[in-house]
Design goal:
The protein has 12 helices and 11 strands. The protein is an alpha+beta fold and 480 residues long. The chain has 3 domains: 155 residues, no CATH class; 83 residues, Signal transduction histidine kinase, dimerisation/phosphotransfer (DHp) domain (Helix Hairpins); 152 residues, Heat Shock Protein 90 (2-Layer Sandwich), CATH 3.30.565.10. It is rod-shaped.
Amino acid sequence: MRIKLAYKLFGAFFLILAIVVGAVLFARHLFFLNFRNHIQQVEIEKLRSLVPALEAEYRANDGWEGLRSDLAHWQRVIGVLSDIMKDTPVLAAEAPLADPDADAGQRPSPLKVSPRGPPGVLLMDAQRQPIIGIPGSDDRQQLVAIEVEGRIVGWLGLEKHTPFKSGASEAWLERQARQLYLLAGAVIVLTALIAFFLSRHLLKPVQRLARGTRDLADRDFTVRIAPTTGDELGQLAENFNAMAQTLGHYENLRRQWLADISHELRTPLAILRGEIEALQDGVRPPTADNLASLHAEILRIAKLVEDLHLLSLAESDILQVNPRPISPAAVLVRVAENHRGPLAQRHIELELRLAGIGATQIQGDAHRLEQVFTNILENAAKYIQSPGSLQVTGQVGQEGLTLRFEDSGPGVPAEALTRLFDRLYRVESSRNRDTGGSGLGLSICKHIVESHGGRIWAEASPLGGLCILLRLPLALTIDG
C-alpha cells in the first residue's frame, strides 16, 4: 500500500510528539518514585535516632514488660518523637494535635496516641511479636533493629505508606496531574494543527513540481513553476524552470532541424524526379548536358548527406581529430591555390598575407583544418558579388594564431552575425539558397575549430562585406 507523503510527514510529527510526551510522563513517574523512596529513607533515619532511648529502657527494665503494661510510660519514652517526626511529611499530617483538655500541671503528650500507640509506629520484640501497635504484613513494614550487648532485643517499626496519599498534598498532586494532562492535550492539538498546515506548506511546491514534470512528459515545454520560497524547494523550482526552458529550446531546434533537412532534400529530389520523368516521357532527350544536370543534383545530395554525417559526428563529440605539429599557413596556402581558379572565374581576387605566420606551428589535424578553410573559401566563391576581393591575413599574438577572411561584400545584417554558425542558417539576402550551399559549412567549421581548442566568429568587414575570424592556440594537446 502506498502512503502519501503528507501522511508520512503528519505521522512523523506525531511520533516525535508521542516520544516527548512519553518521556515527560516517564520522568514524572521516576521523580515521584525516587521522592517516595527518599521520604521513606528519611523516616528510617529518624527512627534510628530513637533507638538509643529504647535500648536504655530495655536495660533499665530488663525487658519490654514495663512498656507493654504501661502505655503512659511508652508515651513518655517516645515523647521525643514530636521533635524527631515533626518534619516527616506523612506523620506530621497524620499525627493528632495535643489534647486541649489535658491538665495544666500535667506535661502534655507530644502525640495523642491510642492504646495501640502512635499512628504508624510499632514496637516488636526479638521474635517480631507486637508489643506496641498493630503490625501489618511484612511487605508493608520498615523495621530498625534494637540491639543490646550485641544481640537484637526488639524492632522499632514504621508502617510503609505512600507519601502524599491524602490531605492537601494529595489535592496538590491531583491539580498537578490535571494541569499536566490539560497541557499534554493542548500540545497534542497544537502539534496536530502545526503538522497539518506545515505538511501542506511543504507539499505544495512538491505537488507543483509533480504536475510540472507530468506536463513536461506530455511535451508541454512552456510550463513554469513560480518559486514561492527562498530555500531548497525554491531553488528546485528555479532549476525546473531552467530545465523546461532548455528542453523547449532543444525541441524547437529539433523541429527546425527536421524542417530544414526535409526542405534541403526535397528540392534536389524534386529536380531529379522532374528531369528523370521528362527523360522517361521523351520530353527531354538523354543528352550529355541533361545527364550532367542529373549528376550535379546527385552530387549536391551526396554533399548534403556527407555534411550532415560530419556535423552529427561533431555534435556527438566523436569527430576524430589526429593532432600533430602542423603549419596552418602551409595548409591554408595549399587550399587557397586549389580555389584560386574558381574564384578567378567569378572575378574574385584572392590575396594572401601570411608572411608573418609562415613558421608558426600548432598541434592540429591538417585534414580537418583543410575542411575549415575549404568551407570558408567555398562560401566566399558563392556569396561574394562579382567583381570582388577576398583578403586572408594571419597574425600571431599572446592569445594564439588569428586568421582573418575579409570579403568585399555584400555584407550581412548585424543581427545575423551571431547566427551564421547555426546549422542550416542562411541570411535572407544575397547570401541565400539561390547561390547554393546547404547552410551547414560554417556550423561544421565551428565544431572543428572548437575541437582544436580554438574559436571562430564573424564581424563586419572593413571592405564592406563579411569578416570570418579564426583563432587557434599555439600549443595544444588533443585527445583524438
